[in-house]
Amino acid sequence: MIPNNRELIHALRQGQLLGIADETGWSVAADPLNEAAVQQLIALKAATKNPYDLTVLARNTDQVVMYVQKMPDVAFDLVEFTDIPLTVLFQKGKNVVAGVGETEIAIRKSLNEDVQFLLGGFGKAVLTLPFESFALPDAARKVVTHTIGEASRNFRKPRILRLGMGGEIEFLRK
Fold this sequence. Notes:
This is Sua5/YciO/YrdC/YwlC family protein. The protein is an alpha/beta fold.
């Protein structure tokens, strides 16, 4: 049975992990303020030796602002008008579990309609562990309670850039 949006949101609020497939492949998501869920993500990252940073997955710039201490003006345009997967590393995050985003926080705006709908209903972003793959690893499949979406065969790894407080841009992956 495919869970509906209400069931997925309830699972997130209960501290459960979700598997999310979107334009960048598979990732595992949690409520960014649920300590136990975030600790599960951190443990999963270690168990799978995942090289990627925990990333906030947001619906729009309104949600991005909720997770960044100070957002440079250029960030609004970068996030709002991107039509390709783009992860932006901001200095100093907020509204996430202690220990995450204290010096730098990775945020990506989802371009997938189903994920956008989920984030809109949830009312905030989710914290994800991206795998950027066609399938979830076995360790990840064992910890997720529900999945949403299917990884596209032509998914794209996101571009990654670091954004300084003065709007300086440094591409880490093009």
